[in-house]
Amino acid sequence: METIEKRLRIYYSKFGFIRFTSNLDVQRIWERTLRRAGIKIAYSHGFHPQAKIQQASPLPLGFESSAEIVDIWISADSDTKITEEDLNHYLPEGLSISYLEFIDPGNSSLQPLLFSSDYEIHFFDKKSLEELECIRQQVINSSTIIFTKHNGKQYDLKPLILNMEIHSHPQNGDYLSMKLSSQINSTGRPDHVLMYFQIDPAQTRIIRTQIDFIKQ
Amino acid sequence: MAKHSSLSPSEIHIFLDKNLFNIQKPGRYVGGEYNQVIKDWDSCTVKSILAFPDVYEIGFSNIGLNILYDQVNNKPSFCAERTFSVWEDMEMAMRKFHIPLFSLESKHPVIDFDLVGISIPYETLYTNTLNLLDLANIPIHSKDRTEDHPIIVAGGHSTFNPAPMSAFMDAFVIGDGEDVFLEILTILSQDDSRDDHLEKISRLNGLYVPSRYNINQYFLGKYCNEKKIDPIKKNMVSHLPASPKKPLVPNIETTHNRIAIEVMRGCSHGCRFCQAGFITRPVRERPLDEIMESLRIALRQTGYDEISLLSLSISDFSSIQDLIIRISSEFTTANVNLSLPSLRIESFSKDLMDAMDQRKGNFTLAPESATAIMRQTINKPISEGDLLETAAQIFQQGWTSIKLYFLIGLPGETMQDVAEIVALCKKVKSIGKKIVAGRARISVSINTFIPKCHTPFQWVAMDLDENIRQKHQILRDGFRNSGIKVSFPSVESSLLEGWLSRADENASSVIYEAWKQGAKFDTWQEYHTFDIWKAAFSTCGINPYEYSHRQRDLQEDLPWDFIDIGVSKAFLGREYQKSMAGSLTTDCRILCHACGIQAGYGIVCRNLLGE
């Protein structure tokens, strides 16, 4: 009987300066973290074997998140008694596992099932509730929100913004949250929404708080 | 100890939060790597920062800095943090908001540390060094620093000729930096004035403190007995320092993402062009068991999947065969690859290749020259037959790609010697074709020879610009349509290195002027700073060709003579004369040629070998 590799699903957060580490680099961090923990990762076959790691949804450079998901295939003979605590010990500052589980290796990969992502936008220079409400009203009342990317291409953000809310927070200032489509070929980026409203994303802290999938 | 008011780490933190979003490769500026050490600031009696004057990705893997980082942080009352040169966009943002250069670990301004240790392995980092000090708000000139400023110490190979940078550095560590760096920190832990600290530092082994050493008196003393003073003798550690137990692992991609372990320091061959071969004598090997134990620890601690064995000439390591076999059998099951630096052609065997056949990547060979006469000149005798035989074996073992290193511009070299490089590479290529057919790849890297201090060629003139250009043309024409990839540095970048590497104290003003006029990142293709340098030499009234292209007399005093590398000037002179006569000097493991290192340090070279 052929031995089947195990599939480990990890739910983790990315906070602080490690937000300036790219998606590809985070993939390498997972590879090294598991090696440090003594867990054998499964590799693809071929001339240049690649570690089998799949991230649910790439997080743009500079964004923080409390809701990342990664699938890592590990060798069939590995121990399944891995705990969140064990692995956290081997992660660099800023990455932290909230939950992990072994899932059926035959399950579909996550990326095609992506539906939406929730983001919180916190402002370094405090914005008034009125200002934020004004943005929300514009989103609701516009029929199109055409954003021009740096390469000149345009896309309409309106159908991608599924929801927008305003939250008041006495200590850290009021903030915005939005639910944006994350489906393949129709992904909305929160920094683009901000730029449309003349807000420099560099002056905000963008946190992904949830990823939702298409119900199967 | 620092008494000035500068920014707090939290202010720097806020600057990073608000600006990094728009900076290229922001991961360079934030630290947070696995195994990073952050100590409680106030409980450290002496705080040091290790700086590398190039971007993070280049400096991160510097083995010397990593060893010092480990050594210092192992001491409870000392700390070592890190900083690197910042790229232009980051510099603009920092200057705009008056943010001084800061440490990656605690985000303290560099100026708040007690000691800044800067590694300067090559001369083309001089302007970056000045820029680094300036961004840190530290006065560029040593004489302008006060009790409020950290002590600035430089180390690395370029400091074997400290004269050009002596106006800017408070002290230089000449030779091995390990152990003596801790001694400097111990001195700084005593409550003394800056002057007293420097006075004490100047008495340590290998420490050159320009304000405490009278170079003129050294040279006068040679001719008049009563004024004699000792030269600065390089620091030499008999045993290689322990490899870091917790090596740093970067979050972003750096140039060397792998475990690098120094297995051997020094080289016994005496290739006459090679500065490292003379200044790092004697040969010291790390014992086999210690290497294996260090690798085990490093693999566990880093999660890397590649091991690199560092040394000037890895195939000379006494138990190289055993080492490679043990590495293969112990680690390669876990998808760990082994990479080796260039191998010497005459000293490795088929068995060695068998043992390292885990990965069929690039195989690197460094014949340096293509004719017998040139090989005699540089003392690297390899017969063409051996080279071709080796190439055949490499292809037969399954490698498909060979990289060859050559030098042009060597003393006495003719156009024919250069043309022979093309012919030789084509022979290697056709051997490859016979064995692995169309998969054979040959790439050739051709550097320009730059005469360096403390070598048998320290007296010779660098080859003329027009000759180098003509030689490049011969190579371009020769390799056209050959299917061989050839690369060489620009004439300008070689000239700059030639001008700076044998410069004297007067060059300080040129370096300062060039930096003032905007020269930095001189090694990066994007920055064409050559014209700035030319203008700076002219402004300072110095003809740079005097440094690079003047044949010196053997009896002449040289600006770096007061630095004693343990190898005597008389020995280097003999080697130079043998070179001109076309005669060879054997490997000193076979026969001692009395270079001076054994007598100078009271050692027996063979006792420093691993087994």
From TrEMBL, chain A:
Q: Name one Pfam family in it.
A: DUF2344
Q: Per the database record, which ranges form the DUF2344 domain?
A: 7-181
Name assigned to this protein: DUF2344 domain-containing protein
Q: Which organism is it from?
A: Anaerolinea thermophila
Automatic annotation (TrEMBL), chain B:
Pfam families documented for this protein:
Radical_SAM, Radical_SAM_N2
Q: Where is the Radical SAM core domain?
A: 253-489
Q: Gene3D superfamilies, alphabetically?
A: Cobalamin-binding domain, tm_1862 like domain
Q: Which GO terms describe its molecular function?
A: catalytic activity; iron-sulfur cluster binding
Q: Which InterPro entries match?
A: CHP03960_rSAM, Elp3/MiaA/NifB-like_rSAM, Radical_SAM_N2, rSAM, rSAM_horseshoe, rSAM_sf
Which NCBIfam families does the record associate with it?
A: rSAM_fuse_unch
- Which named protein is this? Radical SAM core domain-containing protein
Give the species: Anaerolinea thermophila
